[in-house]
Amino acid sequence: MTEEPEETRRPPGTPCWSSLMVHGLGTTEAFYTDLFRWEYEPGPQPFGPYVRALLDGQEVAGIGEMPPDRHLPVAWTTYFATDDADSTAETIRACGGTVAVGPLDAGGEGRVAICSDPLGAIFGIWQAEEHIGTRLSGVPGTPVWAELVTQDTSTVGKFYEHVFGHEAETHATATSDFDYVTLLLDGRPVAAVHGVGRSLPHDRGPHWMTYFEVEDVDAAAARVHLLGGRVVQPPREGLTGRVSTVTDPEGAVFTLVEPRPANDR
Predict the structure, then answer these.
(1) d(CA 42, CA 260)
(2) Is the pTM of this model over 0.85?
(3) Pairing relationship of beta strands 110-116 and 39-42 according to DSSP bridges
(4) Could you read off the pLDDT of 188-211 as tens digits, one per residue?
């Protein structure tokens, strides 16, 4: 993949930002710096300590620290772009989802809401003002894909189609029990829904998975282990490359991906 600076707003319905809320900001920063070469700058503070992760000076993700009295799940959250957070929030409610926080202003950066789909998978919506989201993609250390891991695609796929205008494309495979739908905008893949049935982790429930690109999945997974994280699924061949699902030291789950060259897919 080639380096791709992002200078404009994402089309509505496109994943535009990934953020993580943790208990210990400093130790988490050190983990991702070692793994992805991230540097940091202070982000907006109205919601508590928060930093933006930079790669080659470009914003790629956010990390915030929970108040000491909050004991929320530590997880990466995928944010979808919208031109009108209030209108999108109303659509989410009308389609059976929940709006847990917001919509509210994040300084002059944009307008945000934290939501969940009808089966409980948490995601965010972001109406960009000064902050458009991730400004770099297609290089190691950047988020490159978002995938909803849920019971089955038919239950919740229609929700995202209605809320964000996604078109659903069923993945053709030799095995009929593989339940995977790619979500498209104007014919371009932007995210996916993976139905895993009873394989869904009981301690997590439905969730959005963030994929981060790396040069060498096997080496990166080994590094995660050395840095105090955990390898949940060892490196293996996936749909678009070699992948490994891991956690950081606080337990936030994410997937490492070493994309195949386009002509090998």
Answers:
(1) 35
(2) yes
(3) unpaired
(4) 999 999 999 888 887 789 999 999
